[in-house]
Design a protein that fits this description.
The protein has 174 residues and is α+β, with helices and mostly antiparallel strands. The protein has 8 helices and 3 strands, in the order E-E-E-H-H-H-H-H-H-H-H. A 3-stranded antiparallel beta sheet has the order 1-2-3, with helices on one face. The protein is elongated and about 50 Å long. The model is unreliable at 1-55 (pLDDT under 50).
């Protein structure tokens, strides 16, 4: 079975299960527009613009400072302590929220599964690679605030930093 997700009038289809490298099946979004690196530059820009139009924007935040904190890597705060807190505490909160929401979804969606299988599937939903993909879909990389050194080492494309930022944004939104 598949689940239809409607976001801002755009429909995404989530298939019931898809293969996962760890040998079990997990929910996966299909029909998700992704820019192709192999396209000529003019077509890649066109496809990237299409993706930007289709992917939902970040939710509206009541507290701008929390969003700013969620997008601030610790490397920038170490260089500029006056900036306040980095995103690590919000990342902790976002991780807990994502784990809970994923667990709740699996519990209700798959009543036939045992605890061990639900745990494996939850891990697949909230693993670094999956969360980094969500961060990319929300275009968080260019919005991250980090030190020049981390940026020069590819920090804006680093899956670990992207997944951490996604968790922090979820924590800030909560």
């Amino acid at each position: 079975p598949s689940t239809l997700i409607n976001t801002k009038g755009i429909e995404f289809v989530m298939t019931g299960l898809a293969p996962h490298p760890n040998g079990f099946d997990s929910p996966k979004i299909v029909n998700w527009p992704r820019p192709s690196k192999s396209l000529p530059p003019d077509r890649a820009v066109e496809q990237t613009s299409l993706m930007a139009d289709l992917v939902p924007d970040l939710p509206k935040f009541n507290c701008h400072n929390l969003l700013l904190q969620a997008l601030t890597h610790r490397s920038l705060v170490r260089e500029n302590p006056r900036l306040g807190e980095d995103n690590e505490r919000l990342e902790f909160l976002g991780d807990a929220i994502l784990t809970f929401v994923s667990g709740s979804y699996l519990y209700r969606r798959f009543p036939e599964l045992g605890e061990d299988e639900m745990t494996r599937r939850r891990s697949a939903l909230v693993d670094e690679k999956q969360l980094a993909q969500f961060a990319i879909a929300l275009d968080l990389g260019p919005k991250l605030r980090m030190s020049r050194g981390v940026e020069q080492m590819g920090g804006r494309q680093n899956p670990n930093l992207l997944s951490s930022a996604f968790e922090a944004v979820v924590g800030a939104f909560y």
